[in-house]
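In this supplementary section we document a worked example of the pipeline. Step one takes a protein sequence of length 170 as its only input; no multiple sequence alignment statistics are reported here. Step two produces a three-dimensional model, which step three serialises into structure tokens for compact storage. The input and output of this example are shown verbatim.
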Amino acid sequence: MFAGSPAPQTQFDPRDLTRGTILRRIVAFVLDGIVLLIAIKLLAALLFVFGIVTLGLGMPLLGLLPVVPVLYNWLSLLTGLSATPGQAMMGLVVRRFDDLGPPGGLAALVWVIGFYVSVALSGLPFLLALFTTGRRTAHDLASGLIVVRARALTRGPGFWHMRAGGSPYA
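The serialised model returned by step three reads:
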């Protein structure tokens, strides 16, 4: 599109996809934390019993427990839901920013690692969502993903149109 041409018209405000997502993301984080806590406690108990049965040879497997949250988030994003169970319960999905398609494996991994880096930094990178278009956090920006309301994506054909430049948020 040329510099002087008007931008194509959309049928709605693109921010409709992300309206109300900040509170939903916080609740989803808590729900996922509860699921992870239960899963890790059960897995730790099983691995501990396995370690005792194997006379201590299985105890090093307990060192794999810190990987469980990363796998939980990463594999959840790669399912058909494109969301963690907590996000799905809150009506959220994770999508590519440029075309709102489901995330790829590498982008999802960058998103998850960025999420845990943000947690390690006292959550300060999450505050970026208060100031960015589409309510995107630092790990959303780094991975090229966005968290949107699932219902906003299912309003029927022709509900949203991409703007010039390839992004529905341009």
